[in-house]
């Protein structure tokens, strides 16, 4: 089984679209995008997550995007995780198998989004049926209750999942409930924070890994927050968190999270990733 040792910053990458009527995927820009993130000291990426509009793409498109990112990550030495959920169950299985065939570093999976699991046990059962199809790859659960409406207790879930799923390694924790998130932390676990606005508090609580949209745009702020906390410079870290939160608030004046953040990337970074797809924008 592949080992997973990554700790640090992971950017959930946007999917680049051309500005044509069909929002065709711009595969050609992915290698440049990977190099840009590497130059900004972001050593890892997540493909086809919320930021990447995975749920707005066909299975074939998700596969091709994953393949292009794998080529780019191999070239630039980036760690790569791929999100396979948010689709009908047979498609989730197909995407999990595909990710394993590509030898990615990790697979992340949303819960079943229609027949939603209501208990930790039911969530584990669903993920077991997915994880078996990428059994040699480290497997992670994507906890994002504000979108999935699946909000079972994460410490309880983790205890069950670690016993039931051999390749289970942790979660992406996208929630503002820092108390529950802190209860998930153990040295052997990989708990990757997905909430940009509470980075300072999360680092102080013991989080050491992060998958946050703003790492695409202003990674230096997050790096400075983490560095200042490591040196005991709490006041500086708080000031930087306020700066980051002010930027986020300003960005969100222009639409939903993904649409507004993609617009901010295009305005602040050296190339254009296009607009979001329907149903995020029409």
Describe this structure in words.
This protein is of the alpha/beta class and 282 residues long. The protein has 11 helices and 8 strands. The protein has helices at 30-39, 59-76, 89-102, 120-131, 145-148, 154-164, 178-182, 199-205, 219-230, 234-251, 257-268, and strands at residues 9-12, 44-47, 79-83, 106-109, 139-143, 168-173, 190-193, 209-211. The protein has an 8-stranded parallel β-barrel with strand order 1-2-3-4-5-6-7-8, surrounded by 5 helices. Helix 1 links the parallel strand 1 (9-12) and strand 2. Helix 1 (30-39) packs across helix 2 and helix 8 (199-205) packs parallel to helix 9 (219-230). The longest helix has 18 residues, at 59-76. The chain is globular. The relative contact order is 0.14. The model has no long low-confidence stretch (mean pLDDT 97).
Please render the helix and strand layout as text.
Elements: E1 9-12, H1 30-39, E2 44-47, H2 59-76, E3 79-83, H3 89-102, E4 106-109, H4 120-131, E5 139-143, H5 145-148, H6 154-164, E6 168-173, H7 178-182, E7 190-193, H8 199-205, E8 209-211, H9 219-230, H10 234-251, H11 257-268
Parallel strand pairs: 1-2, 1-8, 2-3, 3-4, 4-5, 5-6, 6-7, 7-8
Helix pairs in contact: 1-2, 2-3, 4-6, 8-9, 9-10
Short description:
This protein is α/β, with parallel strands linked by helices and 282 residues long.
Unreliable spans:
none
Measured distance between first and last alpha carbons? 43 Å
- Structural class call reads alpha/beta
- What share of residues are in beta strands? 5-15%
Considering DSSP H and I runs of 4 or more, what fraction of the residues is helical? Answer: 40-55%
Shape: globular
């Amino acid at each position: 089984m592949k080992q997973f040792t990554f700790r640090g910053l992971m950017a959930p990458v946007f999917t680049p679209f051309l500005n044509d009527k069909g929002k065709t995927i711009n595969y050609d820009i992915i290698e440049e995008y990977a190099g840009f993130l590497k130059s900004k000291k972001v050593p890892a990426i997540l493909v086809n997550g919320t930021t990447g509009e995975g749920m707005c793409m066909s299975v074939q498109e998700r596969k091709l995007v994953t393949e292009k990112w794998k080529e780019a990550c191999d070239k630039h030495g980036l760690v790569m995780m791929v999100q396979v959920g948010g689709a009908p169950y047979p498609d989730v299985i197909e995407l999990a198998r595909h990710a394993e065939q590509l030898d990615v570093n990790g697979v992340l999976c949303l819960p079943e989004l229609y027949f939603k699991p209501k208990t930790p046990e039911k969530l584990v059962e669903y993920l077991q049926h997915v994880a078996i199809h990428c059994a040699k790859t480290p497997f992670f659960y994507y906890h994002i209750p504000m979108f999935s409406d699946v909000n079972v207790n994460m410490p309880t879930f983790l205890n069950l999942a670690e016993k039931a799923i051999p390749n289970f390694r942790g979660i992406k924790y996208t929630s503002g409930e820092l108390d529950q998130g802190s209860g998930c932390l153990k040295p052997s676990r990989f708990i990757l924070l997905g909430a940009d606005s509470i980075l300072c508090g999360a680092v102080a609580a013991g989080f050491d890994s992060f998958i946050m949209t703003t790492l695409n745009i202003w990674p230096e702020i997050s790096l400075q927050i983490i560095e200042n906390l490591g040196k005991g410079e709490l006041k500086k870290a708080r000031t930087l968190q306020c700066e980051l939160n002010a930027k986020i608030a300003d960005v969100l004046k222009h639409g939903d999270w993904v649409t507004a953040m993609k617009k901010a990337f295009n305005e602040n970074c050296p190339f254009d990733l296009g607009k979001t797809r329907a149903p995020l924008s029409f």
